[in-house]
Structure prediction request, 434 residues.
Amino acid sequence: MRLSRYFLPVMKETPADAQIVSHKLMLRAGLIRQTAAGIYAWLPLGLRVLKKIERIVREEQDRAGAVELLMPTVQSADLWRQSGRFDAYGPEMLRFPDRHGREMLYGPTNEEMITTIFLEAVRSYRDLPRTLYHIQWKFRDEVRPRFGVMRGREFLMKDAYSFDLDDEGMRASYEAMFVAYLRTFARMGLQAVPVRAPTGPIGGDLSHEFHILADTGESALFYDAAIEEVSRDELLSADTSTIARLTGLYAMEEEEHAKVSDCPVPPERLRSRRGIEVGHIFAFGSKYSKSMGLSVQNAEGAQVHPQMGSYGVGVSRLMGAIIEASHDEAGIVWPDSVAPFRVGLINMRADDGNCASAADELYGRLRDAGIDTLYDDRDERGGAKFATMDLIGLPLQLVIGPKGVEKGIVELKRRATGEREELSLESAMARLSE
Ligand code: ATP
Ligand code: MG
Prediction:
């Protein structure tokens, strides 16, 4: 992509209304624009990252055996009256009538809808277990939308729902999602702490939240330092023993920790840090299958209510969390897996014919090799181009200047380490094609 034809409205000044670094950087790097309180437009660069995050989430859901569908954003109030949640949900739910005066709402979550879809199709234990998911926009009229996409009113969520015949099956589905979450966050370069969550009004007895450690997180956590010692490789190859190990280690939200009279963690290993909740998994049994009238015939011919779970990931919130975890004074440092482009190509001297044709040629070769490149071909000072590239945080920068062109040399800079090397065009191409 040529920057001269792209849409990248970067900002020099730090926006006054943004309090935390990820929000500031998302605005400055031209990833998002606020269009109303807690509602954002995704600009081209931000949309690329969102799609990459979404893709990792999707791949790990598929790998765990979950099946993707897509449910609508707008739902009928009747569906929610059946479970009793239309009144229970409160002012976070955005409600509105259609032209016939029927009450509608913008979905904050989908337990009722998925259960209804499932019950119309499934009669027998042979159709179980199943886990279905979608990645869809949600609306919650948060009392205090803030921190940009971290706590928005409109936000993108992956929500999965499992249906099992019995408690044992439900636990297996829960564990499969637990593994998917560990892998999902590890692939994004994040260290996620699974915290045993109180199950609250949704009921049931099994629930974990996944938190990314960051000073700007909204939750206060207490946990065993050993959690931080679990390596990325271990998380990527996670199985039930990894879950047993992680859940065996102490990790609690402040309110829960305060209730514990005898903390099992020795003081030198007890850490207290803030966390951003990026995922939440629940196993709640037959709560919705009962209220929505879902039952299936078991192998003995009796009607039973399937045991269910629901599993959320804050897809748009993750972008903020990744930036909180990976940035420096100059801007964002994207992990390779979610970077909007892999390479930023900088022509230092747009006014120099030799430089421009060398840069054009290299850009053509990168494109032919299928290497995602953002090419800064604008008529701007070199310094401004460097600042923009650092701000938007692409993993690799290729710099072409007049001296190098004479010698057939380009400079390759790694954004994360600042490490630079001079390479011939050929070896640069070879390096990037690795
Ligand atoms: P929170 O305690 O942060 O309000 P929640 O318990 O209401 O979260 P869930 O209903 O479990 O969240 O939703 C699943 C995931 O969706 C959360 O783990 C979070 O990552 C994300 N999420 C929830 N609310 C928002 C929001 N207002 N803006 C962005 N992401 C959100
Ligand atoms: Mg909430």
The chain has a mean pLDDT of 95. The longest strand covers residues 270-285. The chain has two domains: 3-332, 341-433.
